[in-house]
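Entry 14: structure prediction run for N-acetyltransferase domain-containing protein. Input pasted below.
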Amino acid sequence: MQFQSEKNKEIKSILENNIVQYNSKFVPSIINNKPTGEVSFINKDEQGEIQAGISMSWYWGIMHIDYLWVKESLRGKKVGEQLLKLAEQKAISLGCSVIHLETYSFQAPNYYKKFSYKVFGTLIDTPEEGTSLFFLKKNI
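Run finished. Output tokens:
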């Protein structure tokens, strides 16, 4: 069997549809009754520059925080906390029961722990020796 490299969104969609069809045999109520999608919340200054934001995606009643970023000058002013609360409110409104995310040791694992996120996995020495990638979740 030969494989070729392709950079094509249509292929991703075909693969996704096939795996969803397969998965629906095992968890039909979740696949058929839980929405999927993406949403972001941002704050802009008077010049239209993004000051902070959060980007999320959801599937099967699970919310994933893709990105959370706050401009350095706004850190320590509860902006990240406001964004996490927005994420939780959105997740609850969509019927999600879990929020999960990834963060590196040099980013914010302890920050998320302050808001009841629990580590459920760690990749040590990733992306390089001395750093780790943490997987965190919160039941809501």
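Notes: The chain has one domain: 35-139. Will compare against the previous run tomorrow.
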